[in-house]
From TrEMBL:
Transmembrane segments: 47-70, 82-104, 124-154, 166-190, 196-215, 261-283
Protein's name in the database: ABC transporter permease
Top-rank taxon, per record: Bacteria
High-level lineage: Bacteria, Bacillati, Actinomycetota, Actinomycetes, Streptosporangiales
Record keywords: Membrane, Transmembrane, Transmembrane helix
């Protein structure tokens, strides 16, 4: 005879509301966006992102102050040139924060825990990429907005033209954020150690920029400005600048940009390829980590 006993411990199935995929995506996005700026983490995690954000704001505030005193329109920095001029600060932000979003779960081997719940691999990747893109966009768009608002308050002439340039610059900020975020996340995802991730992202930025500058210098010595413009597409900041110049009507910030509307269209297509390729690579990377 069996002496086993079944006890009623009051277990009930969950009958509450199920928030669904959109809620999961939003929660992952907010969590990663907060992590990009160190929110919800120790104070030392907030120092670098907020320090870099403050440095990004300083030139805009100084430019507005100079314009308010001199009333010379040239004193205001060009909206479309703000990100290329401060690309070193943006690259440092990307290098320090991309590993936080891309490699922290890999480093502590907790990716399978995410996928033990109804979280899709693609949703997980998209939430991270969009969060990194949003963090970079905020880093660049806020100073540009300060320039625009400051110019309006201090009575910049031809406000309608300024609005067009400002909106074009915001589109450029979106492209910068998408391309840089995609590249940074992919590099960081393959270097689980944060220190190596920071060094790897900086190395990719410096090597691509240095290579392009060297080749452009040689091409211009040979008066081959067309080649110089096409080579610029190999560097992320030059790539997006080509889109701004050829498709959005901005003034160039790079040494040379790809010629004609075709150059802008090819640059935009390359931006799309980089972003979609990065999502595909990250999907495979996290899917593999989720199975291990």
């Amino acid at each position: 005879m069996s002496t086993s006993t079944i006890h009623d411990i009051g277990y009930r199935h969950y009958d509450g509301r199920r928030n669904g995929r959109a809620y999961v995506l939003r929660s992952l996005f907010v969590h990663n966006l907060r992590a990009a700026y160190g929110l919800g983490r120790p104070a030392r995690a907030k120092v670098m992102p907020f320090l870099l954000a403050a440095i990004m704001l300083l030139p805009a505030a100084g430019s507005v102050a100079v314009f308010a005193v001199t009333k010379q329109e040239d004193a205001l920095m060009r909206y479309s040139s703000y990100a290329p001029l401060l690309q070193v600060i943006i690259a440092i932000f990307l290098a320090t924060q991309a590993p936080v979003l891309a490699s922290r779960e890999l480093r502590f081997h907790v990716v399978p825990l995410y996928f033990s719940r109804p979280v899709g691999h693609l949703d997980f990747v998209l939430a991270k990429v969009v969060a990194m893109t949003t963090a970079l966009f905020a880093l660049m768009a806020v100073p540009v907005t300060v320039l625009y608002v400051g110019g309006l308050v201090t009575k910049v002439p031809d406000s309608a033209d300024q609005l067009g340039r400002y909106l074009g610059a915001l589109v450029g900020c979106v492209l910068f954020a998408l391309v840089l975020g995609a590249i940074g996340m992919v590099v960081a995802a393959f270097t689980p150690r944060r220190g190596f991730g920071v060094a790897a992202v900086i190395a990719v930025y410096m090597l691509s920029s240095t290579f392009v500058l060297i080749v452009q210098g040689i091409a211009e010595e040979q008066t081959d400005f067309t080649l110089s413009g096409w080579v610029g597409l190999l560097a992320p900041f030059n790539l997006v600048d080509a889109v701004q110049v050829r498709l959005l009507g901005a003034e160039k910030s790079s040494v040379q940009v790809a010629p004609g509307v075709a150059g802008g269209a090819i640059a935009l297509a390359l931006c799309a390829v980089i972003v979609l390729g990065a999502v595909a690579v990250l999907y495979r990377r996290f899917r593999k980590a989720g199975l291990s």
